[in-house]
Amino acid sequence: MNHTHMLGFSRWGIVAALAAFVPWLSLAGEQMTGRQIMDKQKQLHESKDEEFRQDMLLIDRNGNTSKREVENFYLKTPDKLTKTMIIFLSPADVRGTGLLTWEQKTREDDQWLYLPASGKERRIAASGKKNKFMGTDFAYEDLRPENLETHTYNLLGSEAVGGKDCYIVEALPSTDQEKAESGYAKRKFWIRKDIFLSIKKEFYNKQDQLEKASVDEDLDNVSGSMWRSKKVTMEDLKAKHKTVLATTERKIDKGVPDSKFTLRELTKK
Amino acid sequence: MMRFWTAWILSIFVFLSSASADEENPVSQWVKNHVKGSFRYKNFAHFYTTEAEQRTVRQEGIFRLEVDQTFQENWRFFLVPEWKADTANYTASPFQDFRDTYLRDSYFYLKEGYLKYRGDNFDVAVGKQFYTWGTGDGFNPTDNLNPRDYHDVPDREKLGIFSFAATYYPPDASLTLVVIPYFTPSRLPLAHSRWSPNPNSKSSDDSAFGDLGIPDDTTARRREMPGKRLDKVQVGLRAKQTFSGWDVALSYFDGYNTQPVVRVADNVARPRFNRMHVIGADFTTTSGKFEYHGEWAARLYESGRATSVLPILLGGMYTMDYDWVKDLGLDQILWNLEYVREVTLRKKFNDQYRESGVFDRPFQNSVLTRLTFKVDENNELYTSINWNIHYHRTDHHHDNWFVQPKFMHKFSDSLKVEGGWELFWGAQNSFWGKWKRNDRTFAKFTYFF
After folding, report:
1. Contact, A56 vs A243, CB < 8 A?
2. Which terminus in chain B has less CB density within 10 A, N or C?
3. At A116, which CATH number?
4. Residues B327-368: pLDDT tens digits?
5. Could you tell me the pTM of the whole model?
């Protein structure tokens, strides 16, 4: 047996096999489906609970600004449903205003709004997802965790954003209820390939026109594989109005208790 | 007028003093973190003079502070002092008495002030407090704890009540006990103001009754207040539970109606306050773009001194956020619609007592509705309508209306203006119709700091 030949053959064979395999390896990521990318994002960045403070800067088309300070709480319950609470700390005319939402699996979410002037909480129809949240450019649905079960996700390709290679994933409402309740015909996410985090989003209205765009900046590796952006800018392109969300404090998985998400807490002030 | 402008100047001085405080100063830091406030200017311009009041313009200034201090994690101290002045002398004395029984408002007033302890699953609070029971939007049959200030009827405000409150919080529920040790009456319209249903009254105490058929030779006496005794203590209980998308509450109140009836005996007429037992329930739920709610309360009087009634309210709110709404340049349209029907449980049978129900039972067969056009967070238009439908069994309930178109604009986070019209229709002896010469425009400016 000619070992040299054999070795030579084997060597070339291995090189050839590797040469054929490497492009396939690099394609492996590309060939993840949109849903797989979204699943991966959720797996890497989802927390059990969070508590954070944000400054909301509202900028109109003339450059006039107004600032709001909010406190956010988030909890993933043992049955994988979310509870969220948003409380306004300033300015004075909205201080104490709060919104409490309990996600439900088989029925509409429970949602209560508390306005200090009225002195009582009010159960509100949670279907108003498309409405702007307290004068910001964020709709109520933009502030909720992504519901992977009510959307179809398509991988559209790749593109670099800020020098970082990203997947472009399109999200389309897939259920009749989501189609009826959402203000969007589709959304596009730019998701960084290295950390699987959305850093840019586009929101298209029911006429399929680009209505809003958001950019996430100042990314922070908060824990393990978990990243968060410290600054999100949402722009309403038609109204030429911007909202900048700057996170000033954040605590992740520090054990926000279930008792934080109650009507008692909502109406505390 | 002089006192009004003095209060204005004083308010601005106090505001500017705090606004210009040194940021480094620990006192100004404390103020920044624990004190907020507002200055509100109201202007009401009536279209007509009335027999009772020739004045057509009334101005009012209110300076309010809110002091909120939490200490040792579980304790909270909350205080809302208010300074008020107006040009129609609805405000007169420097202070209220401890029981808040003066007929006019005072220049200085503690609107709210309590100390609260917060345990793991209970709260205990003592002091002057507000309670907001019920789910109705325009009318709350179960909400009987706090008196109201009816000096300006459409602008009526709740008054705080000195009380002890304890709430226990089981999961998704609450159980509240309220104890009110002494009685505070509602402030009824002044005898010779344009809001008095009986402007020719001999006594300011019986101004709110309209024509009760009291003989001319009757001597009017001051109202008789419930005494400060243990058996006069008022008690309220409310249990609330949230389950499967519903909020349901049951309530009970054993206390006094804050509005009096008149006892006529031996040629003496004297306003008195009736003890009542109110057993109530309310609910709210949502479905799609609808919120539904209902509220009813059996109001039972002792010894037949007033008619025992059961007002029932059913209503809902519809949120319109369709694309056509956006195309109109609106964020959303909200439509509140409520129907109130009062059922008589037991007619008054004690002939010594005269009741009018002027403020006590305003809605006996009524539609209450409000349409809100929300342009954005800074601009909103509203139209509120109260329609009392002709009701054969009582004379004073011919069809009558109150309509309030209103707009709100925020110049900034600190400055808000509201303006609009308040219009009344109906026969002179109907609930809203008796004020049909009180049609007016209003403007309210509020500065928050």
Report:
1. yes
2. N
3. 2.50.20.10
4. 888 888 999 999 999 999 998 888 888 876 677 788 889 999
5. 0.86
